[in-house]
Amino acid sequence: MPWQRSRGGRYYVRKLYRRADGRVVRWYIGTGPAAEAAAQADQAERARRAAAAEALRIQRVRLTALEVTAAEFCAAVEALAVESLYKAGYHRHKRGEWRKKRGQHG
Questions:
Q1: Residue 98: inside a domain
Q2: How many alpha carbons lie under 13 Å from residue 42 in its C-beta half-sphere?
Q3: Is residue 105 part of a domain?
Q4: How far is CA 10 from the centre of its chain?
Q5: Whole domain around residue 62: which residue ranges?
Q6: Which pLDDT value is given to residue 77?
């Protein structure tokens, strides 16, 4: 918690995540209504970031599921295309090219 206690009571401090001389910088806000407002604003910002992170996580899960479905569909279509080409008299040549077998017409 950013609230600190001292002999004079409690005061609010923001930790800025930049370093000065190798240490994390703390910004003294103070006490009273200004500190309460700053604490509430920081809490609201943390909640907003957490909600955005959760929404992003949910979107990633959905996209992963869609990618799996698309990969399965592509594999099925590829298998169908290969089978159709073999039945039509084609074969795979060097470097994966499809060519009609010799002696087969039509």
A1: no
A2: 16
A3: no
A4: 39
A5: 3-93
A6: 97
Beta bridge partners of 12: 3, 30
What total number of domains does the chain contain? 1
Strands of 1-106, DSSP E: 3-6, 9-20, 23-30, 90-92, 98-100
The alpha carbon of residue 1 and the mean position of all alpha carbons in its chain are separated, in whole angstroms, by 28
User: How far is it, in rounded angstroms, from Cα 43 to Cα 49?
Assistant: 10
Contact 4, 31 (CB under 8 A): no
Can you give the pLDDT at residue 106? 56
Extract the tokens encoding 16: 């800025």
Query: What pLDDT score does 81 carry?
Result: 94
Summary count for the chain: helices (H), strands (E): 1, 5
CA distances from 15 to 23, 25, 26, 77 (A): 11, 6, 4, 55
In tens digits, the chain (106 residues) has pLDDT values of 577 777 778 888 887 766 667 777 777 888 889 888 989 998 999 999 999 999 999 999 999 999 999 999 999 999 999 999 999 989 888 878 888 877 766 5
